[in-house]
Amino acid sequence: SGALKSFGYEPFSFFEFAWIGIPITVVAIAYMMFIGKYLLPKAELDADQEIEQEIEATVHDSKKQIISGLILAVVVIVMALDLKSISLEMAAIIGALVCVLTGCLTEKQAYASIDWVTIFLFAGMMPVSTAMDKTGAGKLIAEWAVSLMGGSPTPIIMTSVLFIISCTLTQFMSNTAAAALLAPVGVAISQQLGASPKAVLMAIGVAASCAFATPVGTPPCTLVLGPGGYKFMDYVKVGVPLVILCFIVSIIVIPMVWPFFPG
Question: Rounded to two decimals, what is the model's pTM?
C-alpha cells in the first residue's frame, strides 16, 4: 500500500485485503483440518505445561481485557470508516495512547512492543522505492525482468513469477523485507506492461506472508518449533502444499478483484 502511494497510485483501503485474505484463510483452515495435521508428528502436551497455561490464563485482569478489546474495536472501526480527519496511522497511535492512559499497558511495555526493525525498514525502503522511480533504475530492472520472461509476458505470468520469487525469499528472510524489496520492482514491471500495479503488489504481499515452508521464515513459525517438537522437514512437508494452495487461490482471485486493465 505504501509503495502504491509513493508511486502516485491510490493505496489499498483497510479492508481491501479481505478480498484475498478471507478465501486464503478458508482454504488454509480446511487444508490443516483435513490434510496438514496428518503430516505432522504426534506430540502430547506435558500435563505440567497444561496446568501452567491454565494458571496464566486466570491471572489476567478481566477489566483490562474488556477495555483493550473495546479500544481495538474502536480503532478498527475508525480505520474502516476511512475518515479524512483521522488517518490510519493517527488512529493506531491514539489507540496505543489510550491503552497506556487506561492502564492496560505501562509506558515501558508500550515502548518495548514497538517493532523498530519494521519501522526503520519501511522508513528506509520507501525513499529507495522513490529513488528507483526517479533515477530510472526501476524501469531498467523491469525491462530486464520482462526480457527474461520472453519480452512480452502476459500480466498473469508476470504476477505468477513475482509471487514465486516473493514466496521463495520470504522462507529465508523477513516477510516485510521481501515485500519492501519487490514492491517497487512490481510497480515498475506493471508500468512497463501498461497494467495496473494493484494486482501485482497484492500478489507480492500475499506471497511474502506465505512463510510456512521453513521454521525461520517468520517468528510465529520459529516460536512453535520447540513446543511442537517439530523438525525442519515438518515445515517443508506441511508448508509447501499450503504455499501451492495459496498460490492457486491468489492467481484465481486477485485478477478478479483487481483487474490488470480496469475499464
Answer: 0.70
